[in-house]
Amino acid sequence: MSDRMHACALAPAPRGPALAPPAVPQLVARGNRYPLYQLGNPQLRVFRTNFFIQLVRPGTAQPEDTVQFRIPMEMTRVDLRNYLERIYNVPVAAVRTRVQHGSNRKRDYRNARVKKPDYKVAYVQLAHGQTFTFPDLFPEKEQSPDGSPGDEDIQDKLLEEQQRRQSRDPRRGGVPDWFGL
Amino acid sequence: MAAASFGVLCRKALTGLKVSRSLISPQALASTGLLHTTLSRKGLEEFFDDPKNWGEEKVKSGASWTCQQLRNKSNEDLHKLWYVLLKERNMLLTLEQEAKRQKLPMPSPERLEKVIDSMDALDKVVQEREDALRLLQTGQEKARPGAWRRDIFGRIIWHKFKQWPIPWYLNKRYNRKRFFAMPYVERFVRLRLEKQARIEARKKSLEKKKEKFLQKKFPHLSEAQKSSLV
């Protein structure tokens, strides 16, 4: 419960004619120090989140109700729960997070270390017995019938025109061009 | 439409009878072309593009929002647009990561740049409105309070204030910071000034040298520039 108290709540996404409060100082979620909280303060609300998350295909096999995300380092599991529930209407049962260390071992041409950025991974379990499988976003599509005939026609026309230019005058009866006046 | 009505029926059946999986047959749903068994139609599907665009090489998209276009919109509209752009950005980031994973090119990566530009423009417009409101209401130029102070190295810096639960005179960490410079620092301040003066003098002399060289090489052009009315 204390976790939920201290995390900042996401203001509900607008449904219908919602009035964005003009006088509230604009608070950005990421890259910002949250204002100090003291007992009795109102719940901190962030309008217009700065957090961007990506759904990723799990490397190792996960249970069917688990969805894997890459989230910014500053985001907590409570933040992610609010994010998914309010912006995406996804019912969340549980969230677990871990920080993945990006390798600093590779070296470039001058032996300086090249750092791959660290990122936070979140495993979200969906509620109400829902399941999710990561779809195939790059299915092999056969060549569409609209594209190829058009291309082939244009190519055929070009070939015909070239042959017409190169063919000799039929009235000469097959005699090469370098004969003549 | 059939899928939607089926979904509605499922939702009602589930909430009524509290039966978890027996009513939904995976085969029936798979035949309608859905990804997953879910109650909310538009849940995790919003992380992915329209299924027609999967496997395409290019996806058409419009231009990014400009600052002037956004200034014409109300606060409500900007708020809604922010979330529309946020969802689009999440979708494109998901696609980018999957493309890297599959070692295939991402279709139309310029969409992500356009969305990022639009979001930056939106943020800029909102900040402008916020600044204007604050100036009118309170006269404060900056949102975060601060002050010009001399640091321990003798430099004049804009010190931004932090929020503390205790007053400054009880704050051990704050009191360890020194906002004054001892007399032996004056010499280094003079050296720094000299360094800056030398840099500026070098720049000016370089400019003069270039001007002189051009004047020598193209004497006819300088008078033409002076006399042109453009």
Automatic annotation (TrEMBL), chain A:
Residues 135-181 are annotated as: Disordered. InterPro entries: Nucleotide-bd_a/b_plait_sf, Ribosomal_uL23-like, Ribosomal_uL23/eL15/eS24_sf. GO terms for cellular component: mitochondrial large ribosomal subunit. It comes from Ursus maritimus. It is found in: Mitochondrion. Keywords: Mitochondrion, Ribonucleoprotein, Ribosomal protein. The gene is MRPL23. The keyword Transmembrane helix does not apply. One of its GO terms (biological process) is mitochondrial translation. It comes from the Eukaryota. Residues 155-174 have a biased composition (Basic and acidic residues). SUPFAM superfamilies: Ribosomal proteins S24e, L23 and L15e. Belongs to the universal ribosomal protein uL23 family. Gene3D superfamilies: 3.30.70.330. The keyword Ribonucleoprotein applies. This is Large ribosomal subunit protein uL23m. GO terms for molecular function: structural constituent of ribosome.
TrEMBL record, chain B:
It holds the Pfam family MRP-L47. GO terms for cellular component: mitochondrial large ribosomal subunit. Its main location: mitochondrion. It is found in: Mitochondrion. GO terms for molecular function: structural constituent of ribosome. InterPro entries: MRP-L47_sf, Ribosomal_uL29_mit. GO terms for biological process: mitochondrial translation. Keywords: Mitochondrion, Ribonucleoprotein, Ribosomal protein. Belongs to the universal ribosomal protein uL29 family. This is Large ribosomal subunit protein uL29m. The lineage of its organism: Eukaryota, Metazoa, Chordata, Craniata, Vertebrata.
